[in-house]
Amino acid sequence: MSCFHKNASPSFAGDGFRTPDSLQNPAFLEFLDRLGMVPLFAHHPACKYYHNHIIWIGKVPLCLGCSMMACGIASGIWLLPHLGFMRVLPFSALLCLGVLLYIPAVFQVWIQFKPYKILARFLLGISVVFLGYAGTWLTPWSLGGWILKVGFLAVFYTVWNLTLAIRSQYSTSPCQHCPEGRFPVCSYTIPRIPRLVNKYLSESDGSNPDADEFVKALQSVYGKKLVP
């Protein structure tokens, strides 16, 4: 489930940075991967600048978008047996309801208000369930119905990818204007640099001097610098 995350959070590998061929070795690539690690279920740096993208369950950061969408999907599945009069209406009625529930997620690209984002992603999860149920199950099980099912899947796939394209074009990363660096070299990752540098240098056999110099230079600049 992409949860509308077309691209990962900015990193050396994912934000337009191409590692030079001279630095392409497993030890150095592991160093970069560990430097740019984010919490498993957060999908973003768990720092204050990503507060609109993360919710906290105790001390565990979770991706707001994926978590709320998962909750919406679970709620949508639970609601299906309780739709009441909706089950006797044409499948198009539930399709229309699904589309209405989807619309807030589109505007959420521009409305960066956390409570709205929570609601929009939750409704998106319900929307996916309702649309899938109406478009693939409630449609007739005839030749014409199968044509409708295939058509629904094609439209669903197209709209989903169009939505991802819109988000990719208009959404902005908190890293772009962050006053404390740019992930993965920022106040969130700087504290881990000394440990990662020591690990890399202890395992380096000196066969890649360019990578060694890069790591040493990074340590000289950031090794003892902790941005408040």
The percentage helix is: 40-55%
Distance between the termini: 35 Å
Shape: elongated
The class by helix and strand makeup works out as mainly alpha
Describe the structure.
By secondary structure, the chain is mostly helical. Helices cover 53% and strands 5% of the residues. It has a two-stranded antiparallel ribbon with strand order 1-2. A two-stranded antiparallel sheet has the order 3-4. Helix 1 packs antiparallel against helix 6 (193-203), helix 2 packs across helix 4 (114-138) and helix 3 runs antiparallel to helix 4. The chain is elongated and about 70 Å long.
Key words describing this protein structure:
228 residues; mainly alpha; two-stranded antiparallel ribbon
Summarize the structure.
This protein is mostly helical and 228 residues long.
Question: What is the fold's blueprint, element by element?
Answer:
Elements: H1 26-35, E1 54-57, E2 60-63, H2 64-79, H3 91-107, H4 114-138, H5 143-170, E3 181-182, E4 185-186, H6 193-203, H7 209-222
Antiparallel strand pairs: 1-2, 3-4
Helix pairs in contact: 1-6, 2-4, 3-4, 6-7
